[in-house]
Write a structure and sequence with these properties.
3 copies of one chain form a homotrimer. In chain A, a hairpin with a 2-residue loop joins strand 5 and strand 6 (104-105). Chain A has helices at residues 20-30, 56-69, 83-92; strands at residues 2-9, 15-18, 35-40, 46-52, 95-101, 104-105, 111-117, 123-132. Chain A has a 5-stranded antiparallel beta sheet with strand order 1-8-3-5-6, with helices on one face. In chain A, strands 2-7-4 form a 3-stranded antiparallel beta sheet, sandwiched between helices. With 133 residues, chain A is of the alpha+beta class.
Chain lengths: 133, 133, 133
Amino acid sequence: MFTGNFDVKTSDRTQMVNITSEVSSAVEESGISEGMCLVYIPHTTASVIVNEGWDPAVMDDISSYLDQRVPWKGGYSHSEGNSAAHIKASMLGHSAIMAVRNGELSLGRWQAVFFCEFDGPRRRSVEVSVIEG
Amino acid sequence: MFTGNFDVKTSDRTQMVNITSEVSSAVEESGISEGMCLVYIPHTTASVIVNEGWDPAVMDDISSYLDQRVPWKGGYSHSEGNSAAHIKASMLGHSAIMAVRNGELSLGRWQAVFFCEFDGPRRRSVEVSVIEG
Amino acid sequence: MFTGNFDVKTSDRTQMVNITSEVSSAVEESGISEGMCLVYIPHTTASVIVNEGWDPAVMDDISSYLDQRVPWKGGYSHSEGNSAAHIKASMLGHSAIMAVRNGELSLGRWQAVFFCEFDGPRRRSVEVSVIEG
């Protein structure tokens, strides 16, 4: 199994960052032609998803929806005050998995991989594991 | 790694389609007896989930809930007008992964694999990757 | 591929159970040093997620949020009356996948693996599959 990682630096509390090229570079670096690629974050207030990369308004709509439905102040009990970020992270998930074919990440035409920051700004880490099959 | 795919034709805007038999056929076709099966869709306005396959009312309740909570018209900025479908897809995810044991998809007694259409009707593609382990 | 499983006994309708040590034991038992670990539940009214394990208030806030937003009685059509549990399960998912490195589950500093009961109390089963890579 190949393991790589890279950092993402966010500048807002909620921010969707297209990390497709970084993930693709890790897959290329792995030298693996067929298998599965796991994009994983070791964080609890952020997510990784696959969604549309063409029109940035799509990710704006997703983050606005989540901000509205999961209010920052909501009578939470966690003393750090960032429960909304943990809730969003539990809904969108901590990882995304995709096939690797012919040495490339197998994404649909409009798909991109996004790091979703819910408690920024922060420096975050993304781990890419590629398993041969 | 074995790779297969099949099409799903949907007839409504929101539609939950039980694809368990198609996924099981791909696993059988792979000839792999032990490993992991990734069900992946190359789309950004649809999802794949595992949930109850016995009573269709369960999937009706899931799709009704999502339709109520993620309204089709909601002051979104994405010009195509299908942001609700992108939001639902980000919440339910683009893939499902299961173990393969004794040459069969390892599902619980009441579990089935569903393709979730959020922006139909359309012709969609489902990719099945099986990795030996 | 190594396959292990263990039971979780829940005592409330909604209950978040930290299962990190059971999952770690299965990884150790597998004897696999590099690969991927799939934590899977064969149920349709429960989930597995990765989130903060340090402050239990985080999981309380996540379950309170879900209880508020997915009411137990909500005009559902599924006759068993537990549609809310199916809806929550579809949102949080039936599995979590993580890398295994140096024979250990590769989790972030604050991360833990949680079994999420949405229709307890029940005796549940958790399956751990570890694939070498």
